[in-house]
Design a protein that fits this description.
Layout: H1 2-8, H2 14-45, H3 52-74, E1 77-82, H4 89-97, E2 113-118, E3 126-129, H5 141-145, E4 158-163, H6 169-172, E5 175-179, H7 183-186, H8 190-197, E6 202-208, H9 215-227, E7 233-238, H10 240-246, H11 251-269, H12 276-280, E8 283-285, H13 288-295, H14 304-365, H15 371-415
Parallel strand pairs: 1-5, 1-6, 2-4, 6-7, 7-8
Antiparallel strand pairs: 2-5, 3-4
This protein binds guanosine-5'-diphosphate.
Residues 83, 85-91, 104-106, 108-110, 238-239, 241-242, 287-289 line the site of guanosine-5'-diphosphate.
């Protein structure tokens, strides 16, 4: 039907660029690691070639590669949601997940930081306090995250909501969604903000379209903008279904007013965008609740206005996904690419070249000695030569990848 076709047009293709790039980079680091361990075996097993200094060198390279590979496997795209209590942060996250996962109800407020993410392989779905080992059922979330429940957690707690990878497509793309306690609370939790949110690639300010931006919200984002140079900031004027149904004839006027205030906030007060046009494109009027209900089947026959608001939600979803992928590629993988190149270059100049020289010298020196000894060394030389080809292959992979990610970064710069 027409409704289902317009519902399915979500998720952006650019999110997959991040996932693909991650797989490629992991392959590169994997190859590099294999290469180093082969080299290590040669050095350790051949008495004649044993060289303590080279061994130490090689081990140092190995641990650098392992350390980066570990960081790389944890790299994900992160979106953080802010706004006053009850503006609909949890509702927006639920709409993006196509399912009501986070507790979001009249009078309900999230009392702590809630990180929704895909679970690790072989893990079942569970909720977990970051610092603790206990795995709890998803159904415990409502109690845990509620500010009103007797078992409520401290606002500074980080709750991890680990979902099955295939349950929500956005999580399958390695996106992490961070819900925060109301801005009034969050602002006082400076440490948490630094450790849980400042590594976000995209920040989303969820406003209540029925009211105006509060002083606390302004001040909060001034603090964020002072910590990060030009954060990617999107503004959602949520509950637009309510706000625009109050006085339908006033809708455009109210919208214009919102736009003007939000543009002013983004350009003049925060300085995160340099032109009104840029800021304009990052402000949306949506209804998260309707979007969720369309996606989970509670609304089957949306009115024209509801459809319009949903289109706007899709536009928001598409825009922030693209921005997320571009930003994360640049900030997360750029450094790993550079490191890989540096390691390869150093490896070549400090280890491979001296090693080949040493082997050649050994062959010359042993010309007069037993033939089978020569044969053994020559075998190693052939192996090294093969390894050198593997190394060359690593270089080529890296160069190709650098060009691609580089292009992506360049496109981004042209746009901004
Ligand atoms: P949070 O505290 O910012 O996470 O806000 P919640 O997501 O818990 O939302 C607070 C209340 O507003 C809940 O009752 C939601 O169902 C409701 N709500 C959220 N978004 C919308 C919306 O777009 N339209 C309407 N009508 N209600 C909404």
């Amino acid at each position: 039907s027409s409704v289902s076709s317009f519902i399915s047009s979500s998720s952006s293709s650019r999110l997959s660029e991040f996932v693909d790039a991650k797989t490629e980079l992991q392959d590169i680091y994997h190859d590099l690691s294999n290469y180093l361990s082969n080299f290590l075996t040669i050095l350790e097993e051949t008495v004649l070639l044993k060289d303590r200094q080279m061994l130490e060198h090689l081990c140092a390279f190995s641990s650098r590669v392992e350390a980066i590979a570990k960081v790389l496997s944890r790299d994900r795209m992160k979106v953080a949601f802010f706004g006053r209590t009850s503006n609909g942060k949890s509702a927006v996250i639920n709409a993006l997940l196509h399912e009501k996962i986070l507790p979001s109800a009249m009078g309900h407020t999230t009392s702590c930081f809630c990180q929704v993410q895909a679970n690790g392989s072989n893990e079942t779905e569970h909720v977990k306090v970051e610092q603790e080992d206990e795995h709890m059922e998803l159904s415990a979330l409502s109690q845990l995250a509620s500010a009103h429940s007797p078992g409520a957690l401290k606002p500074s707690t980080l709750l991890q909501v680990n979902m099955a990878k295939n349950r929500c497509s956005i999580l399958d793309y390695d996106v992490v969604l961070m819900d925060t306690p109301g801005v009034d609370v969050t602002a006082q939790l400076d440490d948490c903000l630094d450790s849980y949110c400042m590594d976000a690639d995209v920040f989303i300010l969820v406003l209540n379209a029925e009211s105006t931006v509060s002083r606390v919200e302004r001040q909060f984002f001034k603090d964020v903008a002072s910590k990060l140079s030009r954060p990617n900031l999107f503004i959602l004027n949520n509950r637009w279904d309510k706000a625009s149904s109050l006085e339908p004839e006033m809708e455009q006027k109210v919208k214009d007013q919102h736009m003007e205030r939000c543009v002013n906030l983004l350009v003049d007060e925060l300085g995160v965008y340099s032109t009104a046009q840029e800021a304009w494109e990052r402000i949306y009027h949506v209804s998260a609740l309707e979007a969720l209900h369309i996606r989970n089947g509670q609304i089957t026959n949306p009115s024209g206005q509801t459809q319009q608001r949903y289109q706007e939600f899709l536009r928001f979803e598409n825009d922030f996904s693209n921005c997320l992928a571009v930003s994360a590629l640049k900030t997360k993988f750029g450094p790993h690419l550079l490191s890989a190149q540096k390691i390869l270059n150093q490896l070549k100049s400090t280890l491979i070249c001296p090693f080949i020289e040493k082997v050649s010298r050994l062959i010359d020196e042993n010309k007069e000695r037993r033939a089978n000894l020569n044969a053994e060394i020559e075998d190693w030389l052939i192996l090294m030569q093969e390894d050198r080809e593997a190394l060359q292959y690593c270089f080529e992979e890296l160069t190709e990848m650098t060009q691609r990610v580089g292009r992506c970064v360049l496109n981004d710069q042209i746009k901004t």
